[in-house]
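Lab notebook page, bench 4
Experiment: in silico fold of construct C2
Operator: M.H.
Input chain length: 258 residues
Purpose: comparison with the prior construct
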Amino acid sequence: MAASVALPGTVMAGEWRGFQTEEIVVDGVKGYVVVPRDPLPGKPWLWRARFPEYHPEAAVALAGKGVYLAYYDLPNIFGSPAAVRGFDHFYGAVRKKFGLSKKVVMEAVSRGGLFTYNWAATHPERVAAVYGESPVCDMKSWPGGKGKGVGSEKDWAEALKAYGFTEAQMMAFRGNPVDHAAKLAKFRIPILHVISEEDRVVPWDENSAVFAERYRAAGGSVEVYHNLSGPTEDRGHHFPLDDVNREVDFVLARVPVR
């Protein structure tokens, strides 16, 4: 990744589910912003950390209600320091280009939890709220598979490489989202996680449950919603949502509007 790029260039204008998009490049990495037809005052935005095509219904609804959507494609670096730096550059670039609000609502899907919470721990004053779906909160659980989860040998090796760690160093690492919970709670960031108890890829009791316990113990407010709809896929990690409007209502109640 290049050291820095002051501003992204607009690569192309496109379309996403009926909305205009601006595709941009920061540090040689592609990202895009979905532009609502009638933006809310203050230009609030939802930053989708990973897998923007998974359960897109809520994002489509939010864009229809005036919320910008953003995505920056940093795969396979697992919220590492390089990912946090990349997010820093993207955040500054899209705010300058589009005039977006200082505070952003983060969406953390699966491994997106690593990106979201590691960046939020660096810049908690920039985060209005966090919505997560089965978010990874501890790499020992996934991709490590060191607890009850199935793990991923390939992703575990890539995570070790991204962080420059040996396995012993990763096991002793105290920079996972669960380790940031108490710090983030001091900023009273509202958080909602949607999980399935059938999930064997990112077991909720090793991830969201641990994060929530530590967050609440430090005075923060977090809801962990146990999704019941089925059938599930990918060993319980993918599931239909009980209520798409749960995310929509959560975000709209917390986006900074002026």
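Observations: The helical segments are 57-64, 81-98, 112-122, 153-163, 167-172, 177-185, 208-217, 245-252. Residues 1-11 have pLDDT under 50 and may be disordered.
Next step: discuss at group meeting.
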